[in-house]
Amino acid sequence: MTPQGAKFRIQADNFDQPLDINKGTKLDLGSTAKLRTLVTYLEIIEALHQKYAALEPEALHKEVSDPNDVLSRWAIEYLLQSTDKSLAAMLEAALERQYSANPNEQFFTGGGAHYFQNFKHEDDSRILSVREATLNSVNLVYIRLMRDIVRYHMLNIKGSSAKILKDADHPDRETYLRRFADKEGTEFINRFYLKYKNKTASEIDEIFFSSFRHTPHRLAAAYRYIHPEATLTQFSQFMTSRLPGLQDSGDRALHDQYQRYTPGKYSLADQGYIVTVHPLELWLVHYLSSHPNAKYRDVIKASGEERVAVYRWLFKTIHKNAQDIRIRNLLELEAFLEIHRSWKRLGYSFDALVPSLATAIGSSADRPAALAELMGIILNNGVRVPVMLIERLHFAAGTPFETIVERTLDQGEKMFSPDLAAAVRDVLTGVVEKGTASRLAHAIVKEDGTWIQIGGKTGTGDHRYVTFSSAGVIKESHTVNRSATFVFFIGDRFFGTLTAFVPGADAADYQFTSALSTQVLKYLLPTLKPLIDKAQPLPEPVSLKPISKHRSPKEDGSDEAINSSQQPALIEDGLP
Length: 576
What we know:
Blueprint: E1 6-7, H1 33-52, H2 57-62, H3 70-81, H4 87-95, E2 98-100, E3 107-109, E4 112-114, E5 127-129, H5 130-136, H6 139-156, H7 162-165, H8 173-196, H9 201-209, H10 216-226, H11 232-242, H12 251-260, H13 268-275, H14 279-290, H15 296-302, H16 304-312, H17 320-345, H18 368-379, E6 383-384, E7 387-388, E8 392-395, E9 403-406, E10 413-414, H19 418-434, E11 454-468, E12 474-490, E13 494-503, H20 515-534
Parallel strand pairs: 1-7
Antiparallel strand pairs: 2-5, 3-4, 6-10, 8-9, 11-12, 12-13
């Protein structure tokens, strides 16, 4: 980290494939997703602090929050009881909120019922704070934390459909339906259109079909809706390419799936429910596949009927229990669109999240380079600065055509407050001092005997393909790949990721965890230490204007930049 931006000191990839593993892959990096979830959680607490901290107790008492909105209710109660109402104190208290690590609860998420497991079974009977769960990477705490995040967004996003749906006889339901279908439905279409804009038909298919967890029913329903003209042969080729295990099921099973999801048999809303994607995204992918040259105005004009159809059935009072299940599923999809927006702001590389609580423990995958970018923001007090691999190009020296191309100083973009960044750094330091990366504790000692602070988050990805019988018994399980990642910072200047990765069937022969990555970094530290010793302190950045979480920086460049005055001498010494 320098006043000019974040400068690469090491970029290495010894994986003998065309893609750079750091930037060009989509990997299950396991519990590193908890870092993104933690930041999202604290961003919500920061937003609640901004909303409620200035209110007098009398006004706070009048604030009404839904019983399911645990985070808002906690924020109100905290501010009513606490004498220290500063953001730093509230973030610290939020880190001490406790959750059960019990794995025996059934969670309805991602369109079905799920159970989750902790890595260490001795955690199963414990009740842990968010901080303790991060230090020891306890899955069930983060599943429950993500559930609270999802419920918060269900009830607080603009135009939330959750509140009005509580009352089946609400007089404003029909009015709400028309408004929701026209306004919010258009907003969702807009988001999905930007996701697929200027993509070829094959690219649209690849993006869409990689955005949800594959099962035979989901794949068949999606493919038959998007490509209604496809023959049984084309359908079979597609299904077996995505789920190789279906080859053992025989032609009869594929024929039955082909017939079961005949176009027009199910409504658009039901199709979205089966596939576990937002129905309007499913419709848009189908529309763009059949209208490759369509513009945005064409999409909006064509989607008017579908926008209403997707939501109208939700407001009928018959079969309320079955409808409530579908309503919750749809609301969860909408909540994950908001969570994805937050993650995308902070460098998440992909166009969708898996709409499941399992995203908190890695089901939506990530990239090592994107995690490093997030760590850079955390290290730099919530300010994102440009990452620079090339600073200067010098052509044709000593000739009439001599040309020098240099980078201009880009503005820093404030993503969240310094208090939030400090709170996350404190947790990540604990991960190294007494958590899953404790082998790195006090690993770099200065000549005066003091030690350089290291913080980070570990993650192990064990990506498996599993098929089940109708009774839920596992029929087949084989490893797809295995990864172990450590995303870290060292002192106040250096940050990065280190990943071990084994692709394909060979991964079944490996049992390593993220301890491997932390140990490799420990071996590298003596090589890194001379560079770290030479690092000069950074000047304090000036106060930045916060940039809206739902817009990009001002085009006129009026958001303030990081202060580049009093710049220290640049470190030009590379590593051997």
